[in-house]
Specification:
Elements (H helix, E strand, L loop, with lengths): L1 H16 L10 H11 L6 H4 L13 E2 L3 E5 L6 E3 L5 H7 L6 H4 L17 E2 L8 H5 L8 H8 L1
């Protein structure tokens, strides 16, 4: 009997708990909206990801040209992964204040350490430019000519 319980817990429960894996934001509406609801999600797919309307996606900008970040306050406080800010953390560190080893916490805005040159980029609008890019390409004789026109 114990063996059957263990088998049930290890296999049946695990299968029931499985989800569909990674969700692609732009495909939520067609693929995952029912699963979101079934798991207790309150937001619609449109509230999470809308291509040109305000949605949750707007709280996830690009940090310094390569990482994602999360906006967590109305004053612009963002979070990102440690490795994304590593150079800046290292630049602020000294022998007396080793922020790489001990971390840093600013209790007030005035205590924040500036990072000149670091940028956070928000997507403002997404346009489908396929027609403009391929304009005049179909009549060209060779693939090389088509590539040249596209470039």
């Amino acid at each position: 009997m114990k063996f059957l319980r263990l088998l049930f817990i290890l296999f049946i429960v695990q299968v029931q708990a499985q989800q569909g894996g990674m969700w692609i934001p732009s495909l939520l509406k067609g693929m995952n909206e029912n699963e979101i609801k079934a798991l207790g999600g309150k937001l619609t797919a449109e509230q999470i990801y809308s291509i040109n309307q305000s949605s949750m996606k707007d709280a996830v900008p690009q940090f310094d040209g390569g990482c994602t970040a999360e906006v967590i306050s109305p004053k612009g406080l963002i979070l990102t992964n440690h490795h994304c800010g590593y150079d800046n953390i290292q630049n602020h560190s000294t022998v007396e204040h080793d922020y790489l080893a001990n971390g840093f916490w600013a209790y007030k805005m005035e205590e924040e350490l500036p990072n000149p040159g670091v940028v956070v980029t928000f997507v403002v609008k997404i346009d489908d430019v396929t027609k403009q890019v391929f304009e005049g390409v179909n009549g060209l004789p060779t693939e090389a000519d088509k590539q040249k026109k596209i470039q």
